[in-house]
Amino acid sequence: MAQTPFYRLPYGARRDLLAQQSHLTVQQLAKIAARQRSADADLIENYLTTYGLPEGVAVNLRVNGQTIAVPMVTEEPSVIAAASNGGRLLTSERGITTKVERREVMGQIVLSHVADRTGVKAWLIAHQDELLKVANEVHPSLIGHGGGARSLRIRCIPPYWMSLDLFIDVGEAMGANLVNTICEAVANYLKEHLTVNVLMSILSNYATHSLVTAEVAVPVDQLATKTIDGTTVAQRICDASDFAEHDPYRAVTHNKGIMNGIDAVVLAMGNDWRAVESGAHAYASRHGSYQSLSRWWLEDTTLHGELTLPLALGYVGGATRVFPLVVINQQIAQITSARELMGVTAAVGLAQNLAALRALVTDGIQHGHMQLQLKSLALSVGATPGEVPAVVGRLRGSTQPTTAQAKAALLAVRQANLEK
Ligand code: MEV
């Protein structure tokens, strides 16, 4: 008899099968059970449990003249501290200013093995209005909300492909399903009216038509550390910024620091961080080599910073409806639209970047990280929240504590507790 496929098994049977195959203990199964959330079970295939990540709030951020707290979801100990620290350095009257000139999602209908590309191109150009009309008939409610298909572009990609790019204003939504449905409808129309081989219809996550820029100007005095004056710190930050424009090895880490902030906000706001990641890194490579997404430069006594990246974030729809915390997080950050969300997210990325660069070019990154890393090191060796302060206290003296030292510190703490 054919075996029931895993995904068709009831929850308990799936869990028991896994437990048997992987030799899970009763305690491990209890952990899995404790984290189960019935609402998540219908969200994905083969649901087992819910993997929680910590959520915290970056404070001190001043964006477009408003001081806000921004929820961030991350497992990296220093990320929220760095965002708040960066924000504190950027608190002029307007703080970080952001702009979003256009917010459209692109969908592409890919034609393959096109023999007469000139003829097909001419046909597509002649029928542009008709194609946009077909696109706009798919979701009339989108037009009602002020959105809709705005324009199209035709690209010939050697040796034999063509891409019909549709630019769609998806309103406040993330719009992935919307754009895919529209593209498939237009593709069907093409198949009916032209002899073409439609290879696929899908949105592009290279969101070059949803760019957001965050800018800031900071008096150099604000950057001084206990031992280095503000001008020197600013000059070194500019040098680090130039280096990241020239060396892809450094650019990747520089951008990773920016994405530490961006991903954490994107997650807290229920958006698709994989889409954001892939789009951001493609944008970083737009000049032919991988470069930094931000730039810092000095004018007299002011350090200027700028970050531009594609961020097609949605304020409604998708996972924003599924996770109850998203609406709360939007409220905490005082975000009421997709454009505001794009701006605040980019602002966090810029603040995160400044905090990392300032630490790197002054005291070094480990100096500030260590206190936070010690807590996660203690947790990683099994310290309970109640034991963490004592374990951290014992580790504080060593410059580069190892897991073995952390284990020894935990043992010592437990021993001392027994002797009390
Ligand atoms: C660590 O998660 C992020 C940094 O490496 C970023 C950077 O180097 O700019 C500190």
TrEMBL record:
<comment type="pathway">
    <text>Metabolic intermediate metabolism; (R)-mevalonate degradation; (S)-3-hydroxy-3-methylglutaryl-CoA from (R)-mevalonate: step 1/1.</text>
</comment>
<dbReference type="Pfam" id="PF00368">
    <property type="entry name" value="HMG-CoA_red"/>
</dbReference>
<dbReference type="InterPro" id="IPR009029">
    <property type="entry name" value="HMG_CoA_Rdtase_sub-bd_dom_sf"/>
</dbReference>
<dbReference type="InterPro" id="IPR004553">
    <property type="entry name" value="HMG_CoA_Rdtase_bac-typ"/>
</dbReference>
<keyword id="KW-0560">Oxidoreductase</keyword>
<dbReference type="InterPro" id="IPR023076">
    <property type="entry name" value="HMG_CoA_Rdtase_CS"/>
</dbReference>
<comment type="similarity">
    <text>Belongs to the HMG-CoA reductase family.</text>
</comment>
<dbReference type="GO" id="GO:0015936">
    <property type="term" value="P:coenzyme A metabolic process"/>
</dbReference>
<protein>
    <recommendedName>
        <fullName>3-hydroxy-3-methylglutaryl coenzyme A reductase</fullName>
        <ecNumber>1.1.1.88</ecNumber>
    </recommendedName>
</protein>
<dbReference type="InterPro" id="IPR002202">
    <property type="entry name" value="HMG_CoA_Rdtase"/>
</dbReference>
<dbReference type="InterPro" id="IPR023074">
    <property type="entry name" value="HMG_CoA_Rdtase_cat_sf"/>
</dbReference>
<dbReference type="InterPro" id="IPR009023">
    <property type="entry name" value="HMG_CoA_Rdtase_NAD(P)-bd_sf"/>
</dbReference>
<dbReference type="GO" id="GO:0004420">
    <property type="term" value="F:hydroxymethylglutaryl-CoA reductase (NADPH) activity"/>
</dbReference>
<dbReference type="GO" id="GO:0140643">
    <property type="term" value="F:hydroxymethylglutaryl-CoA reductase (NADH) activity"/>
</dbReference>
<keyword id="KW-0520">NAD</keyword>
